[in-house]
Amino acid sequence: MTTTETERERAAGAATYVGRPVDRLDGRAKVTGEARFAAEHHYPDLAHAVLVHATVARGRITAIDPAAARTVPGVIDVLTHENAPPMKPPPAFSALDLSTFVSPTSVNYLATDEVHWSGQPVAVVVAETPEAARHAATLVRPAYQELPAVVDFAAEEPGAVPQKGNPLQPAAADKGDAAAALAAAPVKVDLRFTTPPYNHNAIEPHATVAVWDGDRLTVHEGTQNIAWTRKHLAMRFGVPERDVRVLSPYVGGGFGGKGMVWAGTLLAVLAARAVGRPVRLALSRAAVYHTVGGRTPSTQRVALGADAGGRLTAIVHTSVSRTGRAGGMAEPITAATRHLYAAPNIHLRQHVVQLDLLANSPMRAPGEAIGTFALESAMDELAWELGMDPVELRLRNEPERDPVGGQRLSRRLLREAYAEGAERFGWSGRDPRAGATRDGRWLVGMGMAAAYHPSLVLPASVSVRLGADGRVVVRCGMQEMGMGAATVQAQIAADELGVPLSSVRVEYGDSALPDAPGAGGSAQTASVAGGVLAACDKLKRSVLALARRAPGSPLRGRRPARVEARDGGLYHGTEGESYAAILARAGRDHVTAEVKPSMPLFMARTLLEHRRWMKAACGAHFCEVRVDRDTGEIRVSRWLGVFDVGRVINAKTAASQLRGGIVMGLGMALSEETLVDPRTGRIVNPGLADYHVPVHADVPRIDIHYLDEPDPRTPLGLVGIGEVSITGVAAAVANAVRHATGRRVLDLPITLDKVLPGQAPPP
Amino acid sequence: MKPFAYVKPADVDEAVLAVAADPGARFLGGGTNLVDLMREGIERPATVVDLTALPLDEVHDLPGGGLRIGALVRNSALAADRRVAARYPVLAQAILAGASAQLRNMATVGGNLLQRTRCPYFYDREAACNKREPGAGCDAFGGFNRSHAILGTSASCIATHPSDMCVALAALDAEVEARSVRGVRRIPIAGFHLPPGDTPHVETALAADELITAVELPPAPLAARSRYRKVRDRASYAFALVSVAAALEVRDGSVAGVRLALGGVATTPWRARQAERLLLGGPADEEAFLRAAEAELAPATVRPGNAFKAGLARATITATLRELATGEETA
């Protein structure tokens, strides 16, 4: 209760910087090239490493001859399972040590002759130049004894087994009797969807520079998970955690692909130890495909039953996803379906199949991104069945409490998002008939879908230092992947301490700083904000304590609750003084405050809170597509999103991040697809020429709007925005294509052959 | 990539001599394809003969309204040439539909003529490919073949010719001029690219020691009304699923002149002569366009992954001819 009131007051209070579209603080460094990314760190004597990848999906290495590679001038060493120094085996995931999350596979590289996927690193070549290493790597041609491999998802998915869930992400739900309600429903749809695998394509391919100084290790790395990467490396290489330093100030895009410790990182560190020199290992784009997991493919069934008025009576959503036999976590594909619509009968099941392929990896809204494609496509199809506007159908099924868990909704402005989106987009001008709107050679369609992603807050340690000169340094080992992490925390600290933004510096991206949670689950900004608020609060109390004890201070004896930070000092009404004056009188050069929340306590509280309140980001997508009447070419011509993401700290960086999620969703909807050859398990299109991410010409203007209402139960009313905007995107596109052409495409990506006139409609 | 020797001749004679003396040598133009292939270990030249100092980078008028295009003219420069835009818009459009601005700034006309297929199995040294390794088999037949050819295929290869520019050149009856120590010869574009047959690794009529020095475009008044339509999986920077280069002259409702060539569907830039024959002298209407397209595609051999291409090609041919006939714009 008190927390809530405090948050409300804080949220309602006059903020100088919070909410403003402040320019990102790292913008200049990035556009001038001054910002150095992991691969750009130079050391004297730096050597270069390149991976050799297995070319079979499953088997044993029967011979591996480094002789040819060793003859290449400049080659320093060729590491294989026959000569590499050992690493400790990777830990299995344990809820008791969440850092084990960053270990994506059970394969202990170069400590085994076993091959578990085509692309698994089986050797590392270290050379004086990257060119020599790359050439020599092509000369390492191991011989294999091939073993039968299971790699064909479409063939194997009927044999999938029930997925195990966890308290935060259950893999099943049953409420009422969905099968009976579906059978009895007067209006229903029952659809089967497929989504392909997707790969990570951050602008910065994964890179590591590893430097050993005796048994002390420094690693330059682009990672979303600095603290857990340090812990993992310490464990694998048998050194104390304090002797490992992970530096990751800039990450050139993560999206989940840099949230774990993949082969390149480990093998760079191993190679550096083996050759006794600093080593750089920068993955080629193809090597990213071979060693960094991507999004699972899926098959999904969504069946919806409704009464004639459009009220849902049954929701069935089942899914099959895949992991690798040697690692990967099953994704929560039906997760959003637990929360989006009210229905008396709900049946959710997630299944999983293990294949001899690289472990999957989180990718922006793992589960929800593809789950909402199926659910929101099915809702649209139900609207067609009912002859009802799809916005109206959603309004009629908006829940008052969480549909499965029954929790109260902390804050949920989906109704408002639908209304504002429809109004701004001009939805009412839409001719509801399919294929009725034309513009020259184009069939024009409009589609919409809901976006939904749960909100998560994790414990973050933060220290704040206030100098006698009024300058503030916020220290936190968080990561900046381009979302404006440092900028928004500087805005928050400036407001909390009542100092100009220009006096605040944020230090981040270093494991020597207080531990931050990884940038995942859309949790970083809200989590670190919680730490910054607590540390600033603690700092103000310390400073006030100095003043309250000081004879002659206007704050002497003042009660902390009535003192506010503003204008570079502390004030009680009009009485008060500057930080500089307080520190000077106390003879202090600076005051520092640090907060260090306990993980177990925090998690216990989170789970308890989760039972009472549903907290989430949500929103509504509206789009217009054009489909060529002859060729089926699809162009997205307009996009508008209205989001309820709690309080927005920085309207500029937030809009960029939400837009980015929509662009990534457009790729998912229309063109991206990892082709895994079902005969060999090899990725057939491991590069940007054949794996089609959207280009500029594919992306229309994207209008972003916020409802900007603080969440009463999160730090500063913040809700994470990293993932919500990709959810629902593919469905909005599919729904617009349905409106333009009359065709319901159930299989992503929606390529032109699936809507080509004259082709047989999909079965 | 495999280490190689590098030479940079100052004139054409020196260049052809360098290659005549060294069967393992390859010419380097813009490098946009060769260097990629060298990185992947598909091309492994002993010597790279860099042509970029050769004086072959100009476009000259020919008597009667034709053009002579130096082999080292960059793709972007050719597309920007006003004479090309006025007399052969199909060629400018084709070039601009290909690759990206950065690649077009590097790529040369000669190199574009020689670019190799983007079949992923050709690029993957672990896959079976008759083009890369004669007799090895073809993984595309039973694998992913959505991008593959339906015309001009053989039992050994279904790889698509990737060029946009060459499709326009095919429609324009271009001639390729080649030099070697044996002298100069001219190869009509129709005979320049070879269908795979039993020898998919032999892709052109060019001998290993011949250097392309120029491409000549004969005068073609009807090409002033011509168009290149490219259909692909995203709006830019993707190879064609289907492309159509077309020129059409309509007099009194009937076809007085027509040029038609297809890209993305064949193992070579595909001149649609069957369709042209059917169209010439007949009515310039939708039904005739469709019938001509169907006749051209009748010999198509499709596979599950690329079966849609026959319908897509039919639709794209028809739409492009309709646009030329009616003056309707391709927006």
Beta-strand share of residues of chain A: 15-25%
Q: What is the end-to-end distance of chain B?
A: 43 Å
Instruction: List low-confidence stretches of chain B.
Output: none
Count of helices of chain B? 13
A few lines on this structure:
The complex is a heterodimer of chains A (763) and B (331). Chain A is α+β, with helices and mostly antiparallel strands and 763 residues long.
Could you characterize the architecture of this molecule?
The complex is a heterodimer of chains A (763) and B (331). Helices cover 27% and strands 23% of the residues of chain A. Chain A is built from 18 helices and 30 strands. Chain A has a seven-stranded mixed sheet, with helices on both faces. In chain A, strands 7, 8, 9, 14, 15 and 16 form a six-stranded mixed sheet that branches. In chain A, strands 18-19-28-29-30 form a five-stranded mixed sheet, with helices on both faces. The longest helix of chain A is centred in the last third of the chain and has 26 residues, at 524-549. Chain A is globular and about 85 Å long. Mean pLDDT of chain A is 95; it is low at 1-13. Chain B has 331 residues and is α+β, with helices and mostly antiparallel strands. Chain B is 30% helix and 20% strand. Chain B has 13 helices and twelve strands. Chain B has helices spanning 12-20, 34-39, 75-80, 82-87, 89-96, 101-106, 109-113, 120-123, 165-171, 189-192, 273-279, 286-297, 308-326; strands at residues 5-7, 25-28, 47-50, 59-61, 67-70, 175-180, 183-188, 211-217, 226-231, 242-251, 254-263, 270-271. Chain B has a five-stranded antiparallel sheet with strand order 4-5-8-6-7. In chain B, a hairpin with a 6-residue loop joins strand 11 and strand 12 (270-271). The longest helix of chain B is centred in the last third of the chain and has 19 residues, at 308-326. Chain B is globular. The N and C termini of chain B lie far apart (43 Å). The mean pLDDT of chain B is 96.
